[in-house]
Amino acid sequence: MFFSLLWLSVMHCRIYTADGNSMREAKIFPLSPEIERGSTLKLFCTLGKHLVPRRNASHIIWKLNHDLIPQEHYTIINESTSSVTISNFTYESAHVRCFTKMLDLGYEQLQTHTNVKSGFSPEKPTNISCIYYYDINITCSWISGRETHLNTTYTLIRKHYDDGIQQWINRDTCQSNNGSCAFFFPDIPYVRYCFQVTAKNTLNSSTTECVPMEMLEIEKLEAPDIISVEKIAGIKQLLNITWKNPTVVPERPLCCLIQYRKMHSNDLGNITDCTNHTETIKSYNLMDLQDFTEYAIAIQCKGALAKFWSEWSEERTGRTEEKAPSRKVDLWRVIESPQSSGNRDVHLMWKLLEEFPSSESIHGYKIWYIPENNASSTGSTRNTTDKKITLLLPGEAYVLSVIAYNSAGESPEATLRIPTIGEITSKHIDSVWTFTLRKKMIVTWEASSVNEYVIEWYKEWDSEPFNRSWQYVSNTTNWTFQEGAFESFICYNISVYPLFENKIGAPYSVQAYFQEKPPTVGPEPKADYLGKNEAIIKWNEINKKHKNGFIRNYTIFYKSKGGKELNKTVNSNVLQYKLSSLEANTQYSAYVIAANSAGGKSGNTITFKTSKFNKEDLLYIFISLGLCMLFLLFLGIICTLKKQSLKRVCWPDVPNPAKSIVVGSEDVFMCNSLLKQGQSEDGMVGSEDISVLEPGMPHENQTELLLIKHENYESDHTDTGAKDVPNDHKKELCNEEHEVVKSVSPSLPYIDTEQDLRSQILSAVKPNRKIYPVEKLEEDFSKPQFSPVQNSSSKDNENEDDEHTDFKEAATFNPYLKNSVNTREFVVHENLPDCNQNESRTQSTAPFQKNTAGQSYVTLDMFGLTIAH
């Protein structure tokens, strides 16, 4: 506050003593002030003289950043000066602006502005430390404490101790805006110094205590320079290192640290070498190294009393002398299934033990394989530079051996026995368990009378035999896998083999996960065998690389459209499930979740629709359709075979009496009348009897159609009754009638076609014939029959029999005649006039048939065949 008032007084003095021309601009003070955060800020704004006639202090307004400061915080000092007071200023940095209100112009005019910062007083620096870079500089650093948010200057003061006056005297200083500072070329390097730091800003200053330091303790030398790294001939496992020490004051004791490591390895070894005298060139023998192994070497040095090591020298490499391998290789095999020829592939692989020399010292490997039962055989030899080989061996037992060699010699022989195909050993492993404990895989097993075992493991999906790992163990039934042997979320096949009497027994194998997580992908389902109320959901097993654990179960989720979701859970060995009790002709959606101990993963969702009918429904429909088709086929065959019979039964050919014309019916009835009169008068019967077919006679049994034609009578004869006709006329009529009958061909068949029959009949009938109505014809036929009379003429009977042998005598009831009777006969008396005698022979040749008594007859159907159009 005092500083602000002092600054205000100074500025007032400058305003009143300055020349009038210099006050043409507005001024703000203090300019760019820095204040303690949370304190009160007071600023002044003075208008130039050219503004005072038109504006004064009452027109001044203040803004903090873009916010208007209320007028109650303003103070008018005089006509041209106004001040503003801001309490509790907490901005880290803010702009304060001075404006004048231009009422006549209607806006505010900026006159001047300033930037205000707030912060804190510096704290006392702590943890001062210095390093003396030999013959270069002294660099010191410290911790400045809290951030001040203001411009702070740090001053490093170096003092040396004056033994004469017994006090510290300022030597020199250096300034810095950060937490470090350096003195160059110290002129008195090995005296006692103390170091002090002062921190200062506009608010305050703070100074530390002077911290004393010994130069020999804070000294840091430059890095040494390695000259060579070489082996010594005849001395194994040794390298000689030569380097140049950093430059120091004579007779200064030094210590150097030698760091070495095998190439392509991060295993480090360190050896410290300290001497009481200084040498420019230093040599050291690095021993107990591995044979023919390349090493990388670096060195750093420091003074015997110093706390700081120099930087590391540049790395140099060297290789130890070669030595014959002293340890045999670690040998294993994988035997494939035998081929059809009886041979089998045997994959041999080996590795170098930890104590074994570097692989770079091995020039190659020799492999011998000899049949076990043929000791005299020299066997076969193979050479390779790889650590693996595949041999094709027969089914008998073989003994294999492998040695490693280099230019210095060979390793001991490693042997392995390959059993015969199908060999069974008495020693075996009873059971194997695996579990994870503290991020380590532990394998335990049970076996009897066995002390040595081989543990083999490989990734389940890896079929490459040379990617398998193995380890020999003895005198234990549990083993902890070394860290990094197993990857997480991958299934491994682990097998334990018993070893006894140079033989390898049958393994016991299990599968294990070092760590599990939910499957990466889910099952891909599909719907199959869709029925009316059921469907089968199938899915494939998840790929081994995506399981990430042992699948415990599968859960099928399904629901109909708009329905409730249901689920079914099945074991891990089930890859399909039959959903039942579904609704017919309904769309469903379904998906499957595969779950292991760490969680589950679902596959894609599928949709399917159930059928309207199931197999039984379709079977019933097909059977019904088949039976109907068979029935129709059978009915068609019957109709084809019995076409005529069915036609006569279902559609009989009944003559239409209304359309029929009986030809010569008047003559026929006249002849019949004459016959009746002759019989009644003479009591005689003609030599030939005319019989009518019994009703019901089949149509095909009728032989010929009897057509009776009469000559045209005079109109007076037609009206005369039968009893008034004299005998001569009767005879004439009968003869004429007989001639008409003879005019019709006796061989005329019974034809169903009316047109053909009409044409034949009408050609034989004279045009002047009288037509009786159908009613009269039926009336005449319904009259009582005459009794049949056997013809007495044996000669006529013989002729008649000869002429009618082709006619059938059977008579049946004819259904086509409305008023048919069983039998109707026309009997001619023997005592008729010459007509009877002359007609007997003529009628015997007529198309008449005999009845069972030998009498000729005519069917009534014959009269229906004469039809006139």
UniProtKB/TrEMBL annotation:
It is found in: Cell membrane. Residues 223-323, 327-424, 519-613 form the Fibronectin type-III domain. Residues 1-20 form the signal peptide. GO terms for biological process: cell surface receptor signaling pathway via JAK-STAT; monocyte differentiation; positive regulation of cell population proliferation. InterPro entries: FN3_dom, FN3_sf, Ig-like_dom_sf, Ig-like_fold, IgC2-like_lig-bd, Type1_Cytokine_Rcpt_Type2. Residues 782-804 are annotated as: Disordered. Residues 784-794 have a biased composition (Polar residues). The chain crosses the membrane at residues 618-638. Keywords: Cell membrane, Glycoprotein, Immunoglobulin domain, Membrane, Receptor, Repeat, Signal, Transmembrane, Transmembrane helix. GO terms for cellular component: plasma membrane. It is a single-pass type I membrane protein. Belongs to the type I cytokine receptor family. Type 2 subfamily. This is Interleukin 31 receptor A.
